[in-house]
Amino acid sequence: xxxxxxxxxxxxxxxxxxxxxxxxxxxxxxxxxxxxxxxxxxxxxxxxxxxxxxxxxxxxxxxxxxxxxxxxxxx
Length: 75
Description:
Number of strands: 0
CATH superfamily: lambda repressor-like DNA-binding domains
Order of helices and strands: HHHHH
Structural class: mainly alpha
Helix content: 55-70%
CATH architecture: Orthogonal Bundle
Number of helices: 5
CATH class: Mainly Alpha
Radius of gyration: 11 Å
CATH topology: 434 Repressor (Amino-terminal Domain)
Number of domains: 1
Strand content: under 5%
């Protein structure tokens, strides 16, 4: 599973947040979340900093985020 798919899975199936709600918690707009989930961010370094923020904000272990298996995110 690709990183952008992991983010969408976390947001929708584990946190049960809309793109707008997710973005508000992270301090970014809905369009940023949309672009992450479409794998369309202009700068790849943006994604890395947002992943770190996502893991911190939602208490997800960053290392485990990268070894995520479908349907199971470990915190």
